Amino acid sequence: MEFVKVARSGQVPDGYVRRFYAGELEIAVARLRGTAYATSNYCTHLDCLLSSGKLVDEGIGCSCHGSVFDVETGEAVCPPATEPIRTYPVKEENGEIYVGVTEEDLAEGGPRRRKAIR
Predict the structure, then answer these.
(1) Using CA atoms, how far apart are residues 68 and 55, in angstroms rounded to an integer?
(2) Which residue in 90, 114, 103 sits closest to 20, CA to CA?
(3) How does DSSP assign 16-29, residue by residue?
(4) Which one of 78, 95, 99, 101 has the lowest number of neighbouring Cβ atoms within 10 Å?
(5) Residue 40 in 3-state DSSP?
(6) What is the C-alpha to C-alpha distance for residues 37 and 87, in angstroms, rounded to an integer?
(7) CA distances (Å), origin 74, targets 7, 28, 67, 90, 104
(8) Which structural domains are found in the chain, ordered by start?
(9) Which ranges carry the Rieske domain (predicted)?
(10) 57: buried, middle or exposed (CB in 10 Å: 19+, 13-18, 0-12)?
(11) In this structure, what DSSP letter does residue 107 have?
């Protein structure tokens, strides 16, 4: 696993979720109660962008149909989604956010709505 810099810490204020990329891997980075978390960016219900949703007490809320996912485990905690989202380890150093990804994660590009055009 390699930690890749994806953002400056100030780009993700507490209570917000934003979209970033590690190579072609699209991820949602959220800050909840001061801690940064990284997940896949698409809801497992109908592929809506989680980065356009809001953080709630339980985790990331999908803006399309209200599904909520635990930011630590990725588990769906509120329907209609029942399948978990992928989570990635995060570390913050010197005002930068780093996300832990594998070569496989980077090669696949992670969960996404559409395949990349090459």
Answers:
(1) 9
(2) 90
(3) -EEEEEETTEEEEE
(4) 95
(5) strand
(6) 8
(7) 21, 12, 12, 14, 19
(8) 2-108 (2.102.10.10)
(9) 3-99
(10) exposed
(11) H
Q: Which residues pair with 93 in a beta bridge?
A: 96
Tens-digit pLDDT string for the chain (118 aa): 999 999 999 999 999 999 999 988 999 999 999 999 999 999 999 888 999 989 988 799 998 999 999 999 999 999 999 999 999 999 999 999 999 999 888 887 766 655 444 4
How far is CA 64 from each of CA 7, 39, 44, 58, 67, rounded to the nearest angstrom? Answer: 26, 17, 11, 17, 8
Measure the CA–CA gap between 67 and 90, rounded to whole angstroms: 23
What pTM did the predictor assign? 0.88
pLDDT at 117: 43
* Paired tokens of 48: 């809506």
Residue 89 sits at the vertex; the CA angle it makes with 118 and 15, to the nearest 5 degrees, is 95
